[in-house]
Design brief:
170 residues, alpha/beta, Spore Coat Polysaccharide Biosynthesis Protein SpsA, Chain A, 5 helices, 7 strands
């Protein structure tokens, strides 16, 4: 992992430069999900149409099994990604924030990681993920693969279809 640090302004500029499409935020609360997390991310990547921009927001309750280390090792500079530590102006000592950003222009997703120092539970993890999200639409998924990524493309198409119907009827 590089020691790159970005501030909120730089992070916003980076994210805004990728929002060519309606964006989706997929919130994934985790605690000791090292055996599932990479399979889940790869399955999400495989099941979402390449023209859709989305972000994965992984909110981890300080897993002791190396969950986040696996993400860092799978999405690092040798794999075409840059890992940034996000410096917040009000640096919250209760959590660390990272942005995994593609080094190449043709990738349609980013990964945000929020590591919370204290285990606070799934509901507050979802809340923190939603607060951190930039997507126009939010999807919540369990990291244990109980929510199948195979339905994501269909779900996203239905959301877009519904939005289009409401836009036409106005």
């Amino acid at each position: 992992m590089s020691n790159n640090t970005i501030c909120i302004k730089t992070k916003d500029e980076m994210i805004n430069s990728t929002s060519k499409y309606s964006s989706f935020s997929i919130i994934i609360p985790t605690f000791n999900e090292s055996s599932n997390i990479i399979n889940l991310i790869n399955s999400i990547k495989k099941n979402i149409d390449g023209s859709i921009f989305y972000e994965l927001v992984i909110v981890d309750d300080n897993s002791t099994d190396g969950t986040i280390t696996k993400v860092f090792n799978s999405f690092n500079e040798s794999k075409g990604f840059i890992i940034y530590m996000i410096k917040d102006f009000e640096m919250d000592e209760q959590q660390k924030n990272y942005l995994i950003y593609p080094d190449k222009n043709n990738i349609n997703f980013i990964i945000k990681i929020i590591i919370r120092n204290k285990r606070s539970g799934i509901v507050s993890a979802i809340r923190d993920g939603v607060k951190s999200s930039i997507g126009d639409y939010v999807i919540i998924m369990d990291a244990d693969m109980s929510h199948s990524p195979s339905y994501l493309n269909l779900l996203i198409k239905e959301i877009k279809k519904t939005i289009t119907l409401f836009s036409i009827s106005k």
